[in-house]
Amino acid sequence: MKSLVKTVFIKTLPVMTGYIVLGIGFGILFHSKGFGLIPSVLMATLVYAGSMQYVAINLISGGASLITTAFTTLLVNARHIFYGISMLEKYKGTGAKKPYLIFSLTDETYSLLCGEDYPENVDSGKYQFMVSLFNHCYWITGCALGSIIGSAIPFNTAGIDFCMTALFITIFVEQWLSVKRHLPAIIGLVSAVVCLMLFGADAFLIPTMVLISVLLILFRKRIGGDKNE
Asked: How far, in Å, CA of 225 to CA of 229, rounded?
């Protein structure tokens, strides 16, 4: 067990650094809108959606309706539908852990679990659960620290919400550098730009996900061939 904890900690260390910083940013922003430590921790624990939590700050403080909030959440988190499907096979046989694994599948957790480089002689279900739990705890810790810091030190919060965009850029660059073939990344990038131009910033997310899915299916043989090279 100690060996597994050590392995998971090392594996999730990059996520920890990102989640702590991003969580602090969220906690500070959330506190600036009048919400204290407990609401921040509860949202980090029960919602656990980095980008959506940032969006939710303005929705909650602006008095948005439940319908608006639900629809916005669907748009922001629609990507989870598409890459979550690819984890169904990996999560088979995880038993009671499965609901939590599904709930805690963030972008960063997905990037750590979607590959085949699991530690040898370790139950895959336990490994998946520990990675998911560690990342979740990092996020909760960051949000809590941000709320505490926000209550103790006055901040100019302008620009803090950009840290989520910065994380996605970092993940994209890291994945680009880690593989030889970049067709999936190019498909994602071009699809996003085209849909942004066609549908605008408020409605491009769903069309982008659909277009990416269609193109990945069409080019699946070529992408599969790339993996073997």
From this structure: 7
